[in-house]
Amino acid sequence: MTHPAIAANGLRKSYGDKTVLDGIDLTVPAGTVFALLGPNGAGKTTAVKILSTLVSPGADSGEIRVGGHHLATDPQSVRAAIGVTGQFSAVDGLITGEENMLLMADLHHLPKAEGRRVTAELLERFDLVDAAKKPASTYSGGMKRRLDIAMTLVGGPRIIFLDEPTTGLDPRSRHTMWGIIRGLVADGVTVFLTTQYLEEADELADRIAVLNNGKIAAEGSADELKRIVPGGHVKLRFTDPHAYRSAASALTGASPDEEALSLRIPSDGSQRELRSILDRLDTAGIEADELTVHTPDLDDVFFALTDSATAPASVPAQNNQPKENAR
Ligand SMILES: Nc1ncnc2c1ncn2[C@@H]1O[C@H](COP(=O)(O)OP(=O)(O)OP(=O)(O)O)[C@@H](O)[C@H]1O
């Protein structure tokens, strides 16, 4: 594929007088992971539903192509190219995992033998062989989610939409799911995921877009997004008030906290800057009791960009202050 897997220009959607998506542009190169981040109700699911043909876009939207096909004029081809799993699970709890898979194979008109082959392969790949003959209602949340994705893959989609794939999963199941997603991408599949977990976007996504107030507030790689938010600093703590005061005068530019006997020094956390701070302390003959490095992370980006009172309409968000110590 030379064209992007997903390309949307001026994607709009309103419900009544509520504007949910206010003209967003999305481009997802084939074989990459794109994460759409946003607070509750930002419109992430709406975007997924539109791109996967489940909901029609606003009439004033621009051109939308998925898998190279026009969403407006050729939704059938879009549907053939994609798989969708998410909050609207396709798993039927009354039948077994294997039966769910075979049903999917029938829906995709696979010949019986082929359907059985694909089912066996996917059950194996998603570690569901032991549970295959049990009703899906007896599966744990993580198993159901794995089955859901396995079902999505029966038709061999090249683009998959994962709407909050790990919401509600425990840390181990979440890591298993991340491994599955990485495996899909290694096979050349394009993944469009929505998530509220910043760590998830950081771990998986090549590009991340932060959706806020119907617009993309910022877009870039995790590192690019972290760079637009200031707030990296080194914190030094002291127990001895005398050492604290000596350090405060040795380290010009540090913000003092008299009560906590701590100093906050703006820093990018690099080895060079840390060495310079430590050298200045050494020269003054002072030893700090604790040194911590705070580098901006996606939490900072998220809080800076999605604080509804201060969020900018577009990048860069240079003037936003990160939420102090989001973790
Ligand atoms: N069918 C609908 N009719 C009316 N309003 C809707 C409809 N679907 C979604 N909305 C509204 O659109 C907004 C965006 O909803 P959406 O589900 O896309 O958000 P989200 O970012 O996925 O949120 P969450 O993280 O909570 O799942 C919400 O205010 C929601 O109430």
TrEMBL record:
Residues 6-238 form the ABC transporter domain. SUPFAM superfamilies: P-loop containing nucleoside triphosphate hydrolases. It is a peripheral membrane protein. GO terms for molecular function: ATP binding. It is found in: Cell membrane. PROSITE patterns: ABC_TRANSPORTER_1, ABC_TRANSPORTER_2. The keyword Ligase does not apply. Keywords: Antibiotic resistance, ATP-binding, Nucleotide-binding, Transport. PANTHER family: ABC TRANSPORTER ATP-BINDING PROTEIN, DOXORUBICIN RESISTANCE ATP-BINDING PROTEIN DRRA. This is ATP-binding cassette domain-containing protein. It comes from Streptomyces rubiginosohelvolus.
